[in-house]
Amino acid sequence: MKIFLSILILIFFSVQLISSEVVKDSSRTEIVIYKDNGQVKSIINYKNNDLFGKFTSYYKSGQIREKGKYMNNEIQGKWVKYYENGNLKSVSKYKDGQLNGKYIFYYENGIKQFVEEYEHGKRTGEWKYWYENGALKEIQYYENQKKTGTWITYFEDGTKQGEWKYVKSKKEGVWKEWYPNGNIKQETCYSHSKQNGVTKKYNEDGTLKLEEYYIDNLKNGEWKSYHDNGNISIKGYYKNGNIKTCTWEYFKPDGTLYHTENY
């Protein structure tokens, strides 16, 4: 309905500003809208006052902007869009006005930008995204609109950037991130979308930077940070979030204990 109303508004203002031509027969009406220079701006078909049949719109240059077809006011089948330079912009498929099948989008240089998949308007299957140079950027998975499976992101040079898992749109298992040099950046444990278990953060050279424990998104248990040389810098304990408890110890880079605090 929103698409139909938008088309009606477009027709109304277009007819006010530029000329149009109406072709009728016993079963259909075709409206051809022209620009002030005489070029065709769009071609719209109706049947019994419903959008029905082919639809085509054009850029000022005369290049096709988009084309497809309607059936009873709803987009049906393949819908194609183009950039003004003539390169393909997107190809999508519809059923009863909803995305159904693959939706493919391209950069203006012709490189594929993403491929998504839908079933009756809902996200499903494998989704892929690419950088403008053609390198794979991200892989996602959906089932009945919910995030599922292992998702992976990549840096532009092809090295892995992140890897995580979903079960019915909830974060699960160990989520991992990497630096561009390939070294691990962070490991975080999730259960039902909440941090549960150990979280480890690393320096770019691969040495451990921080280690902390969570229960249902709250810091609980031992907490440790490290000097660049790998020796412990601070060791303490948290409970119920950011509440420090027990004894906290502070160390110099050579491992010497120089300060303690009790909570």
Sheet with the most strands, sense and barrel status: 24 strands, antiparallel
Percent helix:
under 10%
The CATH architecture is: Alpha-Beta Complex
CATH topology type: Outer Surface Protein A, domain 3
Beta-strand residue percentage:
over 45%
* Radius of gyration using CA atoms only: 29 Å
What does this structure look like?
With about 260 residues, this protein is mainly beta. It has a single domain, classed as Alpha-Beta Complex (Outer Surface Protein A, domain 3). Helix content is about 5%, strand content about 65%. It is built from 1 helix and 24 strands. The chain has a 24-stranded antiparallel beta sheet that branches. A hairpin with a 5-residue loop joins strand 17 (about 170-180) and strand 18 (about 185-190). It starts with a helix and ends with a strand.
Spell out the blueprint of helices and strands.
Layout: H1 2-17, E1 20-24, E2 29-34, E3 40-47, E4 50-58, E5 64-71, E6 74-82, E7 88-95, E8 98-99, E9 101-106, E10 112-119, E11 122-123, E12 125-130, E13 136-143, E14 146-147, E15 149-154, E16 160-167, E17 170-178, E18 184-191, E19 194-202, E20 208-215, E21 218-226, E22 232-239, E23 243-251, E24 257-262
Antiparallel strand pairs: 1-2, 2-3, 3-4, 4-5, 5-6, 6-7, 7-8, 7-9, 9-10, 10-11, 10-12, 12-13, 13-14, 13-15, 15-16, 16-17, 17-18, 18-19, 19-20, 20-21, 21-22, 22-23, 23-24
Could you give a short description of this structure?
By secondary structure, the chain is mainly beta.
